[in-house]
Amino acid sequence: MGLFRRSQPAATPLTGRDVLLADLDGVVYAGPNPLPHAVESLNLAAESMRLGYITNNASRTDASVAGHLSELGLSVRPDDVVTSPQAAMRLLSTMVPAPATILIVGGDGLVDEAEKAGYTVTRSAEDSPAAVVQGFAPEVAWTDLAEAAFALQTPEDEGGIPWISTNTDWTIPRERGVAPGNGTLVSAVHTAIGRLSTVAGKPETPIFEEAVARFSATSPLFLGDRLDTDIMGASRAAIDSALVLTGIDRPKHVLAAPQGSRPDYILSDLRELHRAYPRTAEKDGVFTVGRASVRVIDADVQILAEGDSQIDLLRAGAAAIWATGLAIYAFRVPEKLYADPFHRP
């Protein structure tokens, strides 16, 4: 259920963990630059547990991702990085065996994994590909989307070829702000042909299952910045999760999170991985975290005490709203509860 189910004080989010799995965009970096406190916090975690990185971004190879992270000050090998192209190739192998020709819409990360898996890569529908695999890359153009549409015009149940997307993230955080992600590009092809892709990355479970197996994790924690992919995917894979407010989703999204997309921890930034996580106490319908207290009466979410920490107020508000079992639009929510002083890319 999330915050209010936790009853033991003094533990940090990393207590009892053997592996820490982290998303990248919006968690470790935004664009080429590290997010505040991310590198030092992850390096501290690495002193006592294995670190792995899971990314839906299909534009780069695992080696290039590891190189980037190493340049930021982390110690990362290529096999520490689990990518959505890797998940896509595993999924594709169950549908179309190598060395079939497949049409790639995407960048080097996707091409590299396809070639390592033994497939022949084309960029043209005229080469009669046996499948289309689509992933994000900044250089993807209208012509690439058009080739995918040409190859996918026949519905799969009428003999058409499979279509796999590495992920369907609507947005991607960049250094200058939030930009369209692979989901917007997949949607463009869907609009043209009326078909849906099969998704390989988050929030689907194969990418999490690969990470758990690769790192032999028995009690992992997953870090993400998106409720609809990171937290939902971890929940589906039965992995505890922490949402960090340095990326896409904001406090108002946390309060509105549906069942199945609710994190076990809500963090301002990654320094809080190493701090005692305050327990959520409930008495007579009042939810208290630290010195912040919130309750729900009929259609009103009421702040009884703001406390001295905006993150604790958000945690208390989320616990109170989630406990009702009702959607956020049923309530009047005070603006103070979803104030957003937290770092954004």
Helices and strands in order, then pairings?
Layout lengths: L18 E4 L6 E2 L2 E2 L3 H9 L3 E6 L6 H11 L8 E3 H10 L7 E5 L2 H9 L3 E3 L8 E4 L7 H10 L11 E3 L5 E4 L2 E4 L1 H12 L4 E2 L6 H9 L5 E5 L2 H10 L3 E5 L6 H5 L9 E3 L12 E4 L2 E4 L2 E6 L2 E6 L4 H15 L21
Parallel strand pairs: 1-4, 1-13, 4-5, 6-7, 6-8, 8-9, 9-12, 13-14, 14-15
Antiparallel strand pairs: 2-3, 10-11, 16-17, 17-18, 18-19
Helix pairs in contact: 5-6
| Domain count | 2
Largest sheet: 6 strands, parallel
Name the CATH superfamily assignment of the largest domain: HAD superfamily/HAD-like
Strand order of the largest sheet: 5-4-1-13-14-15
CATH architectural grouping of the largest domain = 3-Layer(aba) Sandwich
Describe this structure in words.
The protein is built from ten helices and 19 strands. The protein is of the alpha/beta class. The strands form five sheets. A six-stranded parallel sheet has the order 5-4-1-13-14-15. A five-stranded parallel sheet has the order 7-6-8-9-12, with helices on both faces. Helix 5 crosses helix 6. The longest helix is centred in the last third of the chain and has 15 residues. The mean pLDDT is 94.
